[in-house]
Amino acid sequence: MSTSFGFTSTAEEIATAFADEIRGKNVLITGTSLNGLGFETARVIAKYAALVIITGYNTERLKLAEAALKQEIPSANIRPLILNLASLANVRAAAAEVNAYPESIDVLINNAASSICAFKLTQDGFEQQLATDHLGPFLFTALVLPKVLAAQSATHTPRVVYVASGSHAWCDGVDLAVLERPDAATYKAMTAYAQAKSANILTASELARRAAGRIHAYSLRPGAIATNFTENPEAREELLAAGIITEDGKPNLKANLPWKTLPQGASTIIVAAFDPSLNDKNGCYLTDCAEDNKSVAPHTADPVMAEKLWALSERLVDVKFL
C-alpha cells in the first residue's frame, strides 16, 4: 500500500489511509512540542488512536501541546508525560510512570532529540546529544519494553520507531570511546549529531534482531524540515555554517537539500508506525514513506557494530535489554 506514497505525501493523508491500523491503538511519542515532528505525528493519529501519550521535559510546552491537541480534536485521549532524556534518573521515573499505566503500548515512537549544540555534559557525564538522542531513548525503551511486549497478540506485533536522519552519513560511525568518555577537545557539534542518528539506526536494526519477531523496529529519515529544531538558537550557528539555513534562520533553498513541509516530514513516521506492508521488513530504514536500506551508510549497516553499541549502551545506562 505504501508504494502509492512518496516525498510529497502528508502525515494526514497517510493516517487517513491507515485509520483502521491506528484505531484502538495506544501510542507513545517522545518530543511533542508545537511546530515539531512529534506534535504533527500526535495530531494526525489522535482522532483514531485509543490513547496518545505525549512527552516533553518542559512542563509549560507540554501543556501547550496537550491543549492544542484537545482543542483541535476534542474526542482525543491525550496523556502528558514529563520525560527528560538527558537525565537517566528522570528517564527511570518516567518509565516507572508508564509501567504503572493500565494500558499496554502498541507503538513507541522515539522522536525527541537534543538541539545541535556546543559541547556540554549531562548530569550523568555523557555528551548532551548522544545522551539525549541515544542513551536516554535506549534506557527508556528498555524499561518500558514490558508494556510494549504486552501489546503483542495473534493479529498485532507492536512497533518501536526511531526518527533518525540522512545526516547519519556525515560521520564515520559511532565512536564508542567518545560515547563512553566524551572529549571536548575533539568535539564537533554536527559530528555528534550524525553519530547520534547513526546510533538510532543501529539500535533499530539490533532491536529488530533481538526481539525475534515479538517487536517490529524501524528507523527513518524524515527529510529536511524547518521545525523548532532548526529554529533553536544553539543549533542556528552550526546550521548556518553548514549552509543548511540562511542568516534569517530560514531554509537555504540553494543548499542541495530537498526541503519538506512539516506534514510531509511526519509522513514517514506514520508509515513506519502503522503500514502493514512493513511487517515482513523488520529492522528496515525508511525514506519518503518507503523502505530505503540502500541509502544507509555502510558504518550504520554493520551488524557487528550494532551489537557492540548495544552492549556498551547496556553497560553505560546499567540495564539489560532483550
TrEMBL record:
Name of this chain's protein: NAD-P-binding protein
Keyword terms, alphabetized: Oxidoreductase
Domain of life of the organism encoding this protein: Eukaryota
Pfam family, any one: adh_short
Source organism of this protein record: Mycena rosella
One Gene Ontology MF term: oxidoreductase activity
Source lineage: Eukaryota, Fungi, Dikarya, Basidiomycota, Agaricomycotina
PANTHER family, per database record: RETINOL DEHYDROGENASE (PTHR24320), RETINOL DEHYDROGENASE 11 (PTHR24320:SF283)
InterPro entries to which the protein is assigned, alphabetical: NAD(P)-bd_dom_sf (IPR036291), SDR_fam (IPR002347)
UniProt similarity note: Belongs to the short-chain dehydrogenases/reductases (SDR) family.
